[in-house]
Amino acid sequence: MTGRRGDAPDADADPEDIDLALFRERTELAWHRTGIAFAALGGAMIKTTPSIGLIILAISVLIFVLGHTSRSLLLITIAVTAVSLVALVLAFFNGDPPFPPL
Amino acid sequence: MSSDQSRPGDGADDAAPDREPDARFTLANERTFLAWNRTALAFVVAGLAIVQLLPPFPGLPWGRHLLAVPLIAFGAVLAVGSFVEWGRNQRALRRGEPLPRSPLPRALAVMIAVVGVVAVLLVLLSLALE
């Protein structure tokens, strides 16, 4: 860890309050957890719909990269919304039909 | 993000309305956004698992979809809502204003409660129809 301590830290202060590097590290870990969540979803979907599962896995790799570079929050929003829409389509067309024909 | 950033709230009377907020607050806002998006993904996964893995409710062929579709749709709502919230929070931090109240936690609690109640009703109804 390469974080620089702030000037004249308070002796009673929580170390996390005086070391910005810890905040950055926690944020990077949050990006990693988000990437892992995408990877888990992609891995689970590979069994049922391989093409969409692979796309979601690719998104997870992108999130890992983004966590270290640009941190585009809009891209995450678009990705989660797109995955939700795809999941909605799959829920309607890939399982048993909700309303069987009369 | 430079080290000489002003802290939101330190200079509420300052002339400059928009200032780069403290990096710690910016990062905390970003982590909150990511946490909401993971919650959104969890809703999507739960909805997909209900449709793909759960056996159909006896006598209620639409039962799984009744549970899954709102969960997945709410996942999309959470993703968009968290981005809007992140923007609102970031703007408030820049202006040194109090953070706006977020409707997302209440919506989340209501959604989980409603889906839970619907799930219980579906189970009871399917037991009755069995």
Q: What does this protein look like?
A:
The complex is a heterodimer of chains A (102) and B (130). With 102 residues, chain A is mainly α. Chain A has helices at 15-18, 20-48, 50-68, 73-93. In chain A, helix 2 packs antiparallel against helix 3 (50-68) and helix 3 (50-68) packs antiparallel against helix 4. The termini of chain A are far apart. Chain B is mainly alpha-helical and 130 residues long. Helix content of chain B is 68%, strand content 0%. Chain B is built from three helices and no strands. Chain B has helices at 23-52, 63-95, 104-129. The radius of gyration of chain B is 21 Å and the shape is elongated. The termini of chain B are far apart. Residues 1-16 of chain B have low confidence and may be disordered. At the A-B interface, helix 2 and helix 4 of A face helix 1 and helix 2 of B.
Mean pLDDT of chain B: 85
The count of strands of chain B amounts to 0
Q: What's the average pLDDT of chain A?
A: 77
Share of residues in helices of chain A: over 70%
Number of strands of chain A: 0
Q: Tell me what portion of residues of chain B adopts beta-strand conformation.
A: under 5%
**How would you name the oligomeric state of the polypeptide chains in this document?**
heterodimer
Task: Classify the beta-strand content of chain A into a percent band.
Answer: under 5%
| Gross geometry of chain A | elongated
* Spans of at least 5 consecutive residues with low confidence of chain B: 1-16
Q: What would you report as the Rg of chain B, rounded to the nearest angstrom?
A: 21 Å
| Amino-to-carboxy terminus distance of chain B | 63 Å
| Backbone structural class of chain A | mainly alpha
For the largest beta-sheet of chain A, the strand count, sense and barrel status come to: none
Shape of chain B: elongated
